[in-house]
Amino acid sequence: MSWQKEIRSKIGYWLVGNFFHNIFRPPYFEFLKKSLPSDFLNREICDLGCGDGSATIKLKDLFRAKNIKGYEINDSLIKKARKRGIAVEKIDLEKEVPYGEMATIWAVIHHLKNKEGFLNRVRANFNYAVIVEPIKCWWAFLDGGEPLLEKEWEELFDKTLGGCVSLKFRDNIYIFWKKKTIDEKE
């Protein structure tokens, strides 16, 4: 684990949770709301890497989710999410990915070592996925993860998920993916 990740996971998240992300998120949620395909609404959602649950609550409303459950590795963030009323299961996404109807993955993949393996498991375990990831830019050194360049993200998503819709808003890439049915494959 890098020193940045170590500091953030042991001290930063314990002190402030996703506080700084929450300050800057509203325009990103507004973009998601405007861009969201209607067939992604009213689904059972697994929020992978739910953090302190603040985004999970917004995603639940935005997607009009039938149900939403969070998955997180950091104990202090799990505690904060549960205080917000979110059902959370502790999980290491590097090792396993739950099964469900739809996955929401907000700024998580750039923290994972095996991005491709994770996305392959998402493809196998879900019918829908909405992914938002930061695009590498000048401030990337402040992030404990490793954001990719826009082209690198697109190549990774095309290789692992294929057939997804990719949109860019500011310094983030948005991915909307759904599993193709037998009829759609022909």
Globular, elongated, flat, extended or rod-shaped: what is the shape? globular
Count of discrete structural domains:
1
Q: Order of strands in the sheet with the most strands?
A: 3-2-1-4-5-7-6
The largest sheet is:
7 strands, mixed
CATH architecture: 3-Layer(aba) Sandwich
Element pattern in H and E: HHHEHEHEEHEHEEH
Task: Bin the strand percentage.
Answer: 15-25%
Overview features:
single chain, 186 residues, alpha/beta, Rossmann fold, 8 helices, 7 strands, globular
Structure commentary:
The chain is an alpha/beta fold and 186 residues long. It has helices spanning 3-16, 19-24, 26-35, 54-63, 75-83, 115-125, 150-160, 182-185; strands at 44-48, 67-72, 88-90, 102-106, 128-134, 165-169, 172-178. It has a seven-stranded mixed sheet, with helices on both faces. It comes from Candidatus Nealsonbacteria bacterium CG08_land_8_20_14_0_20_43_11.
Itemize the secondary structure elements and their pairings:
Layout lengths: L2 H14 L2 H6 L1 H10 L8 E5 L5 H10 L3 E6 L2 H9 L4 E3 L11 E5 L8 H11 L2 E7 L15 H11 L4 E5 L2 E7 L3 H4 L1
Parallel strand pairs: 1-2, 1-4, 2-3, 4-5
Antiparallel strand pairs: 5-7, 6-7
Helix pairs in contact: 6-7
Pfam family, one: Methyltransf_23
Organism: Candidatus Nealsonbacteria bacterium CG08_land_8_20_14_0_20_43_11
Protein name: Methyltransferase domain-containing protein
